[in-house]
Amino acid sequence: MDNVNAYKCPQCGAPLAFDPASQQVKCAHCGGEFSVEAVQAFHRAESDGQAFDWGEYKQGLSQETLDNTVVYRCQSCGAEIETDANTAATKCPYCDNNVVLTDRVKGGLKPNAVIPFKITPKELPGVIEKFYKGKKLLPKGFFSANKIGKVQGVYIPFWLFDCKLDGTMMLDAENFLTYDEGDYIVHETQHYLLERDGSMAFAHVPVDASVKMDNDLMDSVEPYDFSELVPFDGAYLSGYLADRFDSGPDDELPRAEDRMQTSAETVVKNTSPFGTVSMRSNNMDIRGASVKYAMLPVYLLNCEYGGKKYRYAVNGQTGKVVGELPVSGSKSFAWFAGVFLAVAGLITALGLLLT
Amino acid sequence: MKKRFLAILLTVLLAAALAVPAAAAGWTSDQWDTSLRRVNDFIDVLTDEEADALNEKACDAIDPHEFDFVVVLCSADDYEGDELLDYATTLYENNGLGYGDTKDGVILLVDMDNYEYVLTGFGRGYYVFGDDAVFDKVSGDFVDTFNENGSIAEAIDAFLDSAAEAVEGFDPDEATREQMENWLEAEPFPEAGPESVQLPGWYPEDVSTFSDFHNSGAARVVDGADIFSAADEAAMAEKIETIREKYDTDLVVYTDVSSYGMPRNLCAADFYQFNGYGLGSDYSGTCLFICMEAGNRGFETVWRGACSRYYTNDITDKLDDRLYDRLSEGEYGKGVLEYLDNIDFLYAKGKLPRTRGTTVLIVGAAVLLGLITSGINLGVMKSKMKTVREATEAHDYLVPGSFKLRRQNDYYLYSTVTRTQKPKNDERSGGGGSSHSSFSSSGGGSFGSSGRSF
């Protein structure tokens, strides 16, 4: 069972977990606090020098086909742990030990970088309250404790694309003039063809690399502060769930390119000195693309209301919460009726007063 | 613009043809120089020498051309709330201008505040300046001279020359000549003086010796045209009596089959004054005159004294609108009773009561705006409930300063052009528009009036 890492406390041997608040690895049993580097060194010594490989992610890596359920043995209690093919970190269901499945994050599958969790579980209620506060159409008691399911911190696999767009765009532009000509007012529309040839660069355009994770949900938790990216270490995953990627960079690059092309068109359109501008042709191509494999922190939580499940994601670095909130029909009606009566009443009163 | 002038001038012409000669009736504007100068500068933009020289030139042109040439320079305040064309017509008609029985002449009225002008002919002048080519030539000479030299005196001089030349050289085509002959035959002009027309029984024999008096016992509803039922008349009399007592101002309803050759407002004012209506020392009161004369059907409200403060242009327009709707449908009794209710409300509140249509309009607009506003508000609130959206752009990840342009060209291809005619400042709202004026009655009383034809 060399593929299972249960990070143990150097003092007492109890399971360790990464603490976002202190950015240290903590032992819940003896209270010991250790740096990620110290735990890694201890683990290397304990595991006879076996360590994660570090190196730039290479494109064309051999993606394993892991469709079947895989069984691992917990190093703490010896129980068998069933995971799906992409699980990279989990908990032992028998001893609650934090388990990192090292074979999912080493060699060609090893992430280049990680953004550690900064938002602690204790901070989550405040973050969520801030999210739904002021949402006047929210049904009463929706976020009460009995409706919130288990909150789980998860490291989501992301591809971070660095690309340069280079080429030419042709745009149609219109310039509107109005002037007097004798007894007439003249409206003139001048039509122009604009040519723009140049380049621009994008860095760390993120696209989630997990097929089972909803793309819109992951897009919405952006942005991340990538200045806080650190080299990957398995110790960061301890105490959290984590999946390895199951969608390769070649598959996800089109999504990143679409986003970059949209932004490039906006930037180029802004160089037009004329009133309206529209794209005639875009021949900007990707040059010099590179990609990093990173694990980004997300809390996932589920709520059930009215027989429908609602899923929310919290950016584990910034605390941004995203998701669809249920709309109360009675509150919607009350707001509609209230605003209608107020506006219609005010206008009627003013109209009758002034006529 | 010119066609608009012609349509209006036709009305003006008929009124001039039927009117008692103004000078004989003592009907003059307060502003007008009693010597009836032909060039009048109300705002002193001409030097005295320029004004005198131009006036002399205009006067000298009258007899040789048997035609009157009139120029007036005014400010916007002089005709505030009125149309420039109406003001020109009032000045011309109310001051005894015009040559001969047909009152032939032309008036050029210039608003020096807005640099707008009206050029309009009367009598024979209607046909002369109704000709497109003549109108363009004369107005063009005036405008071009002013634009070239910046001198209004030189522009007037050019106008007088051009107008005199136009009158002298006017050679109407066959159709116009026939129109003129038919017009002259159809409308024989009365001799000067009110005695030349058949005057109503209430008209004093000698206007010059008339002095105002109170006749509190006179009927306040005089239905000379016999258009009201007895019940309506009784109801009107009752309402009028109530209003008189409540507001200490008189109110009279007068109908007749003729305005006796006078403009309707003058006829109404004379009826009011010569019959001793009016309360208080200023003879405060209002008279509604409905004239049922064929070709001259219309109504006129005239007022005098303290009640004048209620009759703003806006109020009289609305009063006229409402009365017009009834009278034009033949609902004379109902229309006048509503009119009296409106007057009662006006004196009590200083404004007219809302019509049902206005109320429906207000409530309808309020409901519509309420639905739109509440719908938008709910939409915005609902949109805030969903924060999951696919990312479509990557602005956050654009490397600052990385955007470089190697080549940037803007090629002009072509233009598309649409032209719309400028709105005309002197366009009127149409034949239903009210005419407002202040004038003196034949008995020397100062009246205001408003009314329209139906």
Average pLDDT confidence of chain B is: 82
What ranges of chain B have pLDDT less than 50 throughout 5 or more consecutive residues? Answer: 1-34, 188-196, 426-432
User: Between the first and last Cα atoms of chain A, what is the distance in angstroms?
Assistant: 88 Å
Number of DSSP strand runs of chain A: 16
Structural class of chain B: alpha/beta
Tertiary shape of chain A = flat
Number of helices of chain A: 5
Order of secondary-structure elements of chain A:
EEEEHEEEEEHEEHEEHEEEH
Radius of gyration of chain A equals 27 Å
What is the CATH top level name of the largest domain in chain B?
Answer: Alpha Beta
Number of domains of chain B: 2
Biggest interface: chains and residue counts?
Answer: A-B, 77 and 55 residues
Question: Strand fraction band of chain A?
Answer: 35-45%
What overall geometry of chain B do the principal axes of the alpha carbons give?
Answer: flat
Radius of gyration of chain B: 29 Å
Summarize the structure in words.
The complex is a heterodimer of chains A (355) and B (454). Chain A has helices at residues 36-46, 124-132, 215-220, 249-269, 329-354; strands at residues 4-5, 16-19, 24-27, 33-34, 70-73, 80-83, 87-91, 98-101, 113-114, 152-181, 184-208, 230-231, 241-243, 276-305, 308-315, 321-323. Chain A has 2 domains: 4-121, no CATH class; 153-229 and 242-299, no CATH class. The radius of gyration of chain A is 27 Å and the shape is flat. With 355 residues, chain A is of the alpha+beta class. Residues 48-68 of chain A have low confidence and may be disordered. In chain A, strands 1, 7, 8, 9, 10, 11, 12, 13, 14, 15 and 16 form an 11-stranded mixed β-sheet that branches. Chain A has a 3-stranded antiparallel β-sheet with strand order 2-3-4. The relative contact order of chain A is 0.18. Chain A is built from 5 helices and 16 strands. Chain B is of the alpha/beta class and 454 residues long. Chain B has a 6-stranded mixed β-sheet, with helices on both faces. The radius of gyration of chain B is 29 Å and the shape is flat. Helix content of chain B is 42%, strand content 18%. Chain B has 12 helices and 11 strands. Chain B has 2 domains: 2-186, Diaminopimelate Epimerase, Chain A, domain 1; 198-353, Diaminopimelate Epimerase, Chain A, domain 1 (Roll), CATH 3.10.310.50. In chain B, α5 (132-149) runs antiparallel to α6 (152-168) and α10 runs antiparallel to α11 (332-349). Chains A and B meet through β10, β11, α3, α4 and β16 of A and α12 and β9 of B.
